[in-house]
Amino acid sequence: MEEADQSREEISAQKPSSCPNRVRRKCSLSGTAGLTGREGQVARGSRDDSSPQEPWHLRNMISKSPLLCVRPAGWKLLATLALVLVVMVWYSISREDRYIELFYFPIPGKKEPCLQGEAEKIASKLFGNYSREQPVFLQLKDYFWVKTPSAYELPYGTKGSEDLLLRVLAITSYSVPESIQSLKCRRCVVVGNGHRLRNSSLGEAINKYDVVIRLNSAPVAGYEQDVGSKTTMRLFYPESAHFNPKVEDNPDTLLVMVAFKAMDFHWIESILSDKKRVRKGFWKQPPLIWDVNPKQIRILNPFFMEMAADKLLSLPIQQPYKIKQDLRSPTGDQT
Questions:
Q1: Would you tell me which of 19, 60, 63, 214 could form a disulfide with 27, CB atoms 3.0–4.6 Å apart?
Q2: The CATH number of the domain where 240 resides is what?
Q3: Phi and psi at residue 247, in whole multiples of 5°?
Q4: Please, where are the H alpha helices in the chain?
Q5: Domain extent at residue 162
């Protein structure tokens, strides 16, 4: 008997238990019928140093589930993961409702009064030497007759791109619609394409403004209740022109191109004049076919890009020449 006990102790020393000593009493074969009774007495099917070591496959046959041995720290980790999962599920379900609460503003019952001269006062504070003599859109006469010199290259000026620009301005227009020009005071709103507008029901409030400006390919069709149906101007650049003007815009919507590089003028000229399409020189392939009325196209005056970069964003205006062919998205878009 002493030899048998000694043999079992040697086997136990060669094959350590799968659980550390401090938690060994918490380990059991789940699904077995017996548990430890009195101290020092082991029920059949349980695991202890004094029990014979059955082969692993035999123990799996006896137990309907594998050996359960979880450290106290493991339970804390599982509980933390479960809590994170619950929070993520709650966040995904309630996200839309919380967007409405955070960004919703009431729709005015009547059209609010327009404070004449208020925007000009704010612009003077922001820009300092702000002048209303600068036209919003580039005009053909400034480059055909006078040839106004520009101190900066695109996107802050037209230096080096005058010939290209001249051809584009010859087939486009620069006028502001009479319906807007005749207004003594204009109420304007800029509508982006963020998720915060979803389920906001702000379409009616947006349509009440005199001038509604949209950016890039912000969708309208199918979302009129949230974003409105009125579009006075849509600002875009070639890489963001992946929208159908006849579906997303109104018949009198002005499509205002913001030029960041000389290749942008090449692209719009090839589209409007049906010339050989330009495929290189863009961070994203622009449309090769774009059904648009040339008389609805406008070219934004780079003066306003200069003011925004210098006065609002404090960006350096003097940039290396190679920036002209920088193929990264000028607005940070990746798709």
A1: 19
A2: 3.90.1480.20
A3: -100, -45
A4: 2-14, 56-62, 72-103, 118-127, 141-144, 162-169, 178-181, 203-207, 224-227, 245-248, 262-273, 302-307
A5: 118-325
Separation CA 201–CA 292 (nearest Å): 30
How far apart are the C-alpha atoms of 259 and 156, rounded to whole Å?
9
Q: At residue 100, does pLDDT exceed 80?
A: no
Question: Given this model, what pLDDT does residue 3 score?
Answer: 52
Structure tokens at 47: 């695991």
**What are the tens digits of pLDDT across the range 170-217?**
999 999 989 888 888 888 999 988 888 999 999 999 999 999 999 999
| Alpha-carbon span 252 to 246, nearest angstrom | 10
**H or E element in which residue 255 lies:** strand 254-257
Total structural domains in the chain? 1
Residue 92 identity: S
- At 276 the pLDDT is 92
Alpha carbon of residue 235 to chain centroid? 18
Name which of 179, 166, 169, 259 is nearest 212 in CA terms: 179
Q: 202 lies in a domain?
A: yes
Distance in angstroms (rounded) separating the CA atoms of residues 197 and 219: 11
CA distances from 207 to 144, 220, 311 (A): 38, 12, 30
* Segment (H or E) for 190: strand 188-191
Q: Is residue 253 part of a domain?
A: yes
Length of the chain, in residues: 335
Query: Measured between alpha carbons, how far is 82 from 177 in angstroms, rounded to an integer?
Result: 59
Dist CA 52 CA 45 (whole Å)? 10
Residue at 332 is within a domain: no
pTM of the model: 0.64
> What's the distance, Cα to Cα, between the start and end of the chain in Å?
79
Residue 277 lies in a domain: yes
- Report pLDDT for 241: 95
How distant, in Å, are the alpha carbons of 107, 252, 296 from that of 226?
12, 21, 26
Residues 6+ apart with CB under 8 A from 236: 215, 216, 217, 243, 255, 256, 257, 258
Q: Which residue has the tokens 């082991």?
A: 42
Tokens 């379409």 sit at which residue?
A: 203
